[in-house]
Amino acid sequence: MSESANPHAEGILRQNFPCTFDQNAVEIVPGPWPTEKKKLRIGVVFCGRQTPGGHNVVAGLLDACTKHSPDSELFAFVGGTKALFENNSQKVENATMRFFRSQGGIDMIGRSVDQICTEEHLSKAVATCQALSLDGLALIGGTISMTHAALLSEHFAKEGLSTAVVGIPGSVDGDLKSNRIDTMFGFDTASKAYSQLIGNMCADCNSAKKYYYFCRLMGRAPSHITLECALQTHPNVVLIGEEIAAQNQTLADVVKSIADVVVARREAGKNYGVVVIPEGAINSIADIKLLLKEIDDLYAAGKTAEQIPENLTAWSSALFSSLPTLTQGEFLLERESGGSLQLSQIQTEKLLCLTVTAELDKRKEAGKYEGGFSPLAHYFGYQARSAMPSNFDATLANTLGHAAVALIAAGATGLMANGRRLAGPVAEWRVEGVPLTELMTVKTTPSGPEPVIVGADVNLNGAAMKLLTQLRDSWAVHETYRNPGPIQYAGEQANDINITLQSERETTAVRLKEVEEQCTRILELCRSGCPPRNLATACSGLQSVVSILEILAKD
Amino acid sequence: MSESANPHAEGILRQNFPCTFDQNAVEIVPGPWPTEKKKLRIGVVFCGRQTPGGHNVVAGLLDACTKHSPDSELFAFVGGTKALFENNSQKVENATMRFFRSQGGIDMIGRSVDQICTEEHLSKAVATCQALSLDGLALIGGTISMTHAALLSEHFAKEGLSTAVVGIPGSVDGDLKSNRIDTMFGFDTASKAYSQLIGNMCADCNSAKKYYYFCRLMGRAPSHITLECALQTHPNVVLIGEEIAAQNQTLADVVKSIADVVVARREAGKNYGVVVIPEGAINSIADIKLLLKEIDDLYAAGKTAEQIPENLTAWSSALFSSLPTLTQGEFLLERESGGSLQLSQIQTEKLLCLTVTAELDKRKEAGKYEGGFSPLAHYFGYQARSAMPSNFDATLANTLGHAAVALIAAGATGLMANGRRLAGPVAEWRVEGVPLTELMTVKTTPSGPEPVIVGADVNLNGAAMKLLTQLRDSWAVHETYRNPGPIQYAGEQANDINITLQSERETTAVRLKEVEEQCTRILELCRSGCPPRNLATACSGLQSVVSILEILAKD
Q1: Which residue out of B114, B135, B173, B457 is catalytically annotated?
Q2: Does one domain contain both A173 and A259?
Q3: Are B382 and A200 an interchain contact pair (Cβ–Cβ within 8 Å)?
Q4: Residues A528, A516 within the same domain
Q5: Average pLDDT for chain A
Q6: A-chain residues within 8 Å CB-CB of B385?
Q7: Residue B371 maps to which CATH number?
Q8: Which residues, 6 or more positions from B432, have their beta carbon under 8 angstroms from its beta carbon?
Q9: ipTM score of the complex?
Q10: Do A197 and B103 touch (CB under 8 A)?
């Protein structure tokens, strides 16, 4: 989640990344490969969680490096970073690759837990890259993996190792996005796969007209997936974690807002509906967040699960004892070494089923609600993150693989492969390498400032969120369910992009294209041989545009 | 589930269905509609559970009746049989229909619980059909609905009502199948939608390599869906309820068989896998079935949930107390009016996660198993039964709607619309009306013999099951996971039919076509004018074929 900006960030980053900090983004332009075709040796490691498109990155790397020189070799570290440290690699052959092209999961090369942190890890990575004489190492994963790519590239450069490190961003969470970065691969597929399921649930509840379906969606803290799925399917209620946090909502507030919709629908003669809940929502609820933090701290202070309830503060203790037994048990689950609870282990959908039922029972007793309430809880998790990639993700992931090879061939290190103008037609996509340090912020930790790449929260003022705000009041009672259906690979819908990308970035893609076209046109008009008057006009006009943009850039 | 044949069945059926019993199947052949275009008034009611293709049936009825005569009218009973009894109908207009064509769910016309049983229901149905002057009434649903269609058509005929009743079989369970009936609409879509999810789970577990996914599939007692999904996805373990029942397996047997696979996989260095479980499996397990029966009986005898455990027999009591608390609670859930527990309320996947864990712990203590075991339970239920229909189901459902109109136009009652040669290309499909009474068996109940249409169990000697038996040993340890991906509407895979239909009925479809072609050829060769010798040869040859077939028919 977002951190407040550290005013010394630039200095800290320059200090931590002396070799890789001061560099610009590298634009990758189409053109012939260099005539001296140096054979490339590239390593690839999948550091994140399963992401649709993972195999396409590997295919892109393989295709691009063998196109560069047929003698090039791609080595996959089979089993994630663990395999990188132990130099457990396998040459990727087309004969194997073809079985995995555009398949879901990442079973061809496997994965392990995210972990490149310690000095020992860094030295082992150096040893492996030296042993294999790698020209480049591609790290695929989410924000944590991109942070590791930055650390690794700096370390390699400091050690004088010639292995270029390139990050390739992919995650179903879709949280690596900014004005600079349109999206990461995997998000499009995952949100479409979940939307298909939610669309089916909407059709189902509208047919049976007797159940409330509470559906929790995978996707860690930010609610990007939930936002996209809501825009795709129009459920009656959608929770957005960032909104709950911004409004400082308590559990009682959230429960009340859902119960209000149930009551309003009941008054309209409807006793069914769909509620969509992001996995991370639970930790955005103000009082729950405090309670979980207290439990974390008590565990850290050596208390046992049995001792925790009696050691809570009065407020948290009251909240804890008001929770369903199921949830109490989940909140007390043993912490992983990191110290905090895995959000995926909390069945927020069940907690809300139970608490909304209790709220409605109360209203019934008070004569403010009549009729039953049959909630059913669903978790849509593992079944989407290994889905077959959509055409968009397959193309993007493959393209990023190609981009990484181009960067490695140019000897550029510390960059992340990035696609621009992705909301436009594929023919108009552009690729570049963005310095990983440029994406970093500095987090304040007990052990001092720590440079990291953090995921973006849902922008409550962004175009996608505005669209949701505009539409969702009408969904609550007058349902206009929408079922986008299964992901298509042929036919009209096959190349539809997700609504988030479309609403947030389509205008940017169009404008960027226009700017580039105008510049190209000016260059065409100002060839040598054209009258000096024309050149003078161009210079003066352009200079004023540059001045204005420079002023704006300082804001 | 299957009933042992009642030797007096034919007599009982003839007695119960004097008006509709003695009739033959009606072949519907292509040809011009009658020149005297009588305008038709048809009612349609959806009696079953949500089934992909439901809207296509309605569209087929609408298209066919307005093609028959543009003045024809189709009335939907909005809200299932309840609406039929209350004459709550709405004329189906193309303007509305077009929003629902090929959509999932059945929200355009709704549904209610299955219920046409009492004399009062029957008279109300008569009153409604009289009030609307219906020429025909189409009932869409599963085996229970087809039974009701039989009762209704007999009652209408007895009352001299001219409304023809036609059944249109659809259900995700796919259990109305026999030598006569290839399949029902809905099964193809549901099994493909679940297969997509299971395929993703297989890719996921093979990528993370740390979890066992236990997936329970909706589909009531017979295991048809699970069988099809297993053939599509190749999970490590698949339970088939009919097999468990046939082998008289106890819970301990089932747990042991799964634990054996876990141990064998562990020895092969693999600590992950996928187990697929049909919803109905729980009631096929010998000792669990007895226990559930005892609980049903104790409830029927007026005992409360608290009193039940102490009133169980010694065997059942021992089993009950060995079960996880979660399962105990589910087993004691209050019965619906029918008397027995809804299988969907039992989380068999969690029961098996817990009991297999306990079994492995025991083996670990005995030194027979090393290493961990991380099971995760999933239920794939409501998200498939309202999925958008596959091309196969959309076409079949629409075709059956057309067939029903043809039957109604011909004044035929007591028939079920049925497609033949469905495993072949659509151009070679044939449609017919099969007498509903022909599909009936006689069930022995406490209140006497009861004619019903029952669903077919998985045929353990059938082609699909044989294929499973052949393949699955190799899936247990040497996984060959297969991911069929999302249902496609365009492109190469769009018209693939499911493996069950293909393996069980493709040969039949080909042979049937050949028989029909041979007969047509003989008729062509034996026109009037052909030499008497040829006719004599044909007669003699055909007579011998007929005699042999008649002898075989008696077997």
Answers
A1: B173
A2: no
A3: yes
A4: yes
A5: 92
A6: 200, 204
A7: 3.40.50.460
A8: B25, B26, B27, B28, B403, B417, B418, B420
A9: 0.87
A10: no
Query: How many C-beta atoms surround the C-beta of residue B90 within 10 A?
Result: 15
Identify the pLDDT of residue B1.
38
Same domain, B176 and B206: no
Give the domain-ending residue among A437, A452, A467: A452
Q: Tell me: pLDDT of A507 over 60.
A: yes
Nearest CA in chain B to A211: B382
With a CB cutoff of 8 Å and minimum separation 6, the contacts of B381 are: B216, B217, B218, B279, B344
Asked if residue B209 belongs to a domain, the reply is yes
A-chain CB neighbours of B483 within 8 Å are 103-104, 388
Helix%, strand%, coil% for chain A, nearest 5: 50, 15, 35
Active site residue B173: yes
Beta carbons of B382 and A385 less than 8 Å apart: no
B507 domain residue, yes or no? no
> pLDDT tens-digit profile of B279-296?
989 999 999 999 999 999
A352 lies in the same domain as A435: no
Beta-bridged to residue B137, according to DSSP, are B43, B165
Which of A114, A173, A393, A457 is labelled catalytic?
A: A173
CA distance to partner chain A, nearest, from residue B213 (Å): 9
Q: Is the pLDDT of residue B79 over 60?
A: yes
Q: Three-state DSSP class for B282?
A: helix
| DSSP of A48-106 | SS--TTHHHHHHHHHHHHHHH-TT-EEEEETTHHHHHHTT-EEE--HHHHTTTTT-SS-
pLDDT band at A1 (very low <50, low <70, confident <90, very high): very low
Q: Residues A277, A352: contact at Cβ < 8 Å? A: yes
CA distance B384 to chain A (A): 7
Residues A304 and A401 in one domain: no
The answer to whether residue B159 is domain-embedded is yes
Interface list for chain B against chain A, based on CB atoms closer than 8 Å: 49-50, 54, 103-107, 110-111, 193, 196-197, 199-201, 203-204, 206-209, 213, 376, 378, 380, 382-388, 483, 485-492, 494
Picking from A191, A204, A272, A478 by the largest number of B CB atoms within 10 A of its own CB, the best residue to mutate is A204
Q: Is residue B30 part of a domain?
A: no
- Position B22 scores a pLDDT of 87
**Domain range holding A177?**
38-101+108-186+389-452
**A291 and A155 belong to one structural domain:** no
pLDDT on residue A219:
75
From A207, A483, A490, residue closest to B491, measured CB to CB: A490
Closest residue to B203, CB basis, from A111, A204, A386? A386
Helix-helix angle B499-525:B463-477, to 10 degrees: 150
**CATH number of the domain that A441 lies in?**
3.40.50.450
| Alpha carbon separation from B431 to A429, B28, B418, B435 (Å, rounded) | 51, 6, 6, 13
Does A287 lie in the same domain as A209?
yes
**Both B242 and B367 in a single domain?**
yes
Integer Cα distance of B518 and B515 in angstroms? 5
Q: At what angle do helices B499-525 and B224-233 cross, to 10 degrees?
A: 100
Contact A203 B376 (CB under 8 A): no
Query: How many domains does chain A fold into?
Result: 3
Is the predicted pLDDT of residue B355 greater than 50, yes or no?
yes
* DSSP result, B398-437: HHHHHHHHHHHHTT--SEEEEEESTTS-GGG-EEEEEEGG
Spatial separation of the C-alpha atoms in residues B70 and B63, rounded to whole Å: 10
Percent composition of chain B: helix, strand, coil (DSSP 3-state, to 5): 50, 15, 35
pTM of the shown model: 0.90
- DSSP, collapsed to helix, strand or coil, labels residue B524 as helix
What pLDDT digit, counting tens, does each position of B301-335 carry? 999 999 999 999 999 999 999 999 999 999 998 88
Contacts of B199 in chain A (CB under 8 A): 104
Q: Do A486 and B487 touch (CB under 8 A)?
A: yes
